[in-house]
Amino acid sequence: MTLATYRLTRLVVKDDFPPLLWIRHKLAGGWAGPDQDVPVYRARWSPQWLADLVSCPWCASAWVALGVLGGTAMAVAVPVPVLVWLAVWAGAALLASQDWA
Question: What is the pLDDT of residues 24-49, one digit of tens each?
């Protein structure tokens, strides 16, 4: 679950997968591409907390971990869900915040 959370967090926060990159730029702002110096501004309807959420690996991994844990709990029994959520979050956040990740 930690590795799944790490991968989904990286997909949300860092990866350049075009549909997710477009959504992230609309929510948080950013740059159009590596060879272009055209900034993409955050949409007016996007609140600041949402922009922070999609650009912060620690913040995003908390919610992704909660979703992964919820999906796993529906499929199989998970003992002590809150403790498992915190453990999955901690492991994924440590991985996602590394420079080499």
Answer: 777 777 655 555 555 566 667 777 77
Contact 21, 31 (CB under 8 A): no
Cβ contacts of 74 within 8 Å, gap of 6 or more: none
Strand ranges, E, within the chain? 30-33, 36-40
Cα–Cα distance for residue pair 24/10, rounded to 1 Å: 12
Around 47, how many Cα atoms within 13 Å sit in the side-chain half-sphere? 3
Contact 69/62 with Cβ under 8 angstroms?
Answer: no
Judge if pTM exceeds 0.85: no
Residue in 101, 13, 7 with CA at minimum distance from that of residue 56: 13
